[in-house]
Amino acid sequence: MSKLTSISWNELVKRLRELGFEGPFLSSGPHPYFMRRGDLTVDLPNPHKQDIGVGLLKKILKQAEISREEWFSVV
């Protein structure tokens, strides 16, 4: 199985779209953006200049109910 690595915000959005998510949408809550697939909503970190680290990526994938196999299927 492949190893998770840091990813840019734009690449994260691209892959989530390929997995059926819509957005990103602007939020008025603590996280400025979110994406949605059906009833499932995933908060996105601020699109800053740094890549999204492995720890945060794992949390996002868990919230999005995306397995490692599914994540790597859209590489």
CATH architect. name = 2-Layer Sandwich
Helix content: 25-40%
- N-to-C CA distance: 13 Å
Structural class: alpha+beta
Spans with pLDDT under 50 lasting ≥5 residues? Answer: none
What Rg, in angstroms, do the CA atoms define?
Answer: 12 Å
Shape type: globular
Q: Give the number of DSSP strands.
A: 3
By DSSP (H or I, 4+ residues per run), the number of helices equals 3
> What name does the CATH topology carry?
Metal Transport, Frataxin, Chain A
Beta-strand residue fraction = 15-25%
Mean pLDDT across the residues is: 90
Overview of the structural elements:
The structure is a single chain. With 75 residues, this protein is an alpha+beta fold. The chain has a single domain (9-72), classed as Metal Transport, Frataxin, Chain A (2-Layer Sandwich), CATH 3.30.920. Helices cover 33% and strands 20% of the residues. It has 3 helices and 3 strands, in the order αβββαα. The chain has a 3-stranded antiparallel beta sheet, covered by helices on one side. A hairpin with a 2-residue loop joins strand 2 (33-37) and strand 3. The radius of gyration is 12 Å and the shape is globular. The two termini are 13 Å apart. 11% of the residues are buried. The mean pLDDT is 90.
